[in-house]
Amino acid sequence: MSYIFSAEVLQKYEARYEVCDSCAYLRICNPHWLEEAYSSAIADADTGLVSRNFLIAEKLSSLLFWEMAERGGGRYLDSAGGYGMLTRLMRDYGFDFYWSDKYCENTLACGFEYDAESGKCVAVTAMEVLEHVIDPVTHVKETLSYANADTLIFSTELYNGAPPNPAEWWYYSLPTGQHISFFQLRTLQLLADKLGLNFYTANGIHIFTKRNLRKKWLRIVTSSYFSKATAPLLRRLMKSKTMDDHRKILNSVSRP
Question: Span 48-170+184-254: which CATH code?
């Protein structure tokens, strides 16, 4: 790793950024302020949280149904799931999603927290997570092991070329101090190689998996146009869990 520049995070700490010359992995060296940064797990400045979750749910549902042949039989974990919004949206579509997060309270998917007794998962989702972790290799290994899964579906903003100037790239999220790792496509490919997994990417959705996926079809089903246009059909083909979950929660609170 080579030092490349410094910038101020949380309006008071100096962050030293370093980059790997061979794979372009860019990170903050020793981000000692993380406990303070996560005193509020989801930054107040993340005004795109709601719209982003709706868009991800459309793309993710399309990916699982049309490419991974999910018809309601598989179990999924949304890791670092925040308030539980994506878990709730995916269950509303009809997918058996569960939630986990070490730092945030589950307010929207209560009753569907994941633990080892929940059983093996087909895949884990980690949307806007990898930019928060200090050690991406260990994090992915532990996440997949926890869910006993062989597929990670995730999103993170990538950069091209030289590391962007801190004043010109919003994704550094300097005021929050929570984004500490940044990637290029070749960084993710090397990470997949280290994990012994295949790497696929299309329309902002990245996948580490032991499966062999169809790259052209993957680009189609994760496109905004296709996923949005087919969402009403997918909702009819899948059986929404909204009312079943409603009854399950009522039954659980009415027990003596």
Answer: 3.40.50
pLDDT averaged over every residue in the chain: 94
In the chain, where are the structural domains located? 48-170+184-254
Residues contacting 39, CB < 8 A, separation 6+: none
Nearest CA among 125, 84, 82 for reference residue 104:
82
Q: For Cα atoms 182, 217, 213, give the angle at the middle one, nearest 5 degrees.
A: 65
Q: Which residue has the tokens 């100037």?
A: 165
In contact, 195 and 206? CB cutoff 8 Å? no
What does the pLDDT average to over 132-156? 97
Give φ, ψ of 29 to 5 degrees. -80, 125
Tell me how far apart the alpha carbons of residues 128 and 85 are, in angstroms, rounded to a whole number: 13
Contact 86, 125 (CB under 8 A): yes
Arithmetic mean of pLDDT, 113-124: 92
